[in-house]
Design a protein that fits this description.
Strand order of the largest sheet: 3-4-5
Structural class: mainly alpha
Radius of gyration: 27 Å
Strand content: 5-15%
Helix content: 55-70%
């Protein structure tokens, strides 16, 4: 999907920076994998996972304030739930947290939803131009009249298509 400037662009960029810090702030030297504060806090037994939920909840709350749909918010909460549930398992949860990156997922879900919502309010011509269909023009009365008066056409399989006075196409096998 093409990038669309939403009315909430500054807030989205701020949330992306927060999610990046929580999920991808540091590179592990030997492995090369990126981890964030969420993974580091998860190493502290009990308290770490609870502290990591605060920024995740803030991202969901911001999505609610920006007008995200209930379905979008439910997906975001589901990502956090998976992260929190598996994060409670010692060591396995910490390894899972490195790969899951719920905050980055949630901000991406929120951005896609808000871009679709913004695009839905645009006129059709502007949406088509954004997708590369700016050369297509709407049919005029002249082109519609010319299309009605077209002679019979022969398809590649030998069928003949004739146009009636009402503009309906009829297929006749020869």
């Amino acid at each position: 999907m093409p990038k669309v400037d939403t009315p909430h662009e500054e807030r989205l960029q701020s949330l992306e920076r927060l999610a990046h810090g929580m999920d991808r702030a540091f590179r592990l030297p030997v492995v090369g994998t990126r981890v964030g504060w969420d993974s580091i806090l998860g190493l502290v037994p009990g308290v770490g996972d609870a502290l990591a939920l605060a920024p995740a909840g803030y991202i969901v709350l911001s999505g609610y304030r920006m007008g995200a749909s209930n379905g979008t918010l439910a997906r975001m909460v589901g990502n956090i739930g998976v992260d929190a549930a598996i994060g409670t398992i010692p060591l396995v949860g910490d390894l899972f947290d490195i790969g899951w990156k719920a905050n980055l997922r949630n901000v991406a879900i929120l951005r896609r939803h808000l871009e679709k919502k913004t695009m839905a309010g645009e006129p059709l011509a502007k949406r088509l131009a954004r997708r590369g269909f700016d050369h297509i023009n709407a049919p005029t009365r002249k082109t519609l009249k010319a299309a009605r008066n077209l002679p019979q056409r022969v398809h590649s399989r030998g069928s003949v298509v004739s146009t009636t006075s009402a503009g309906e196409a009829r297929l006749r096998h020869s």
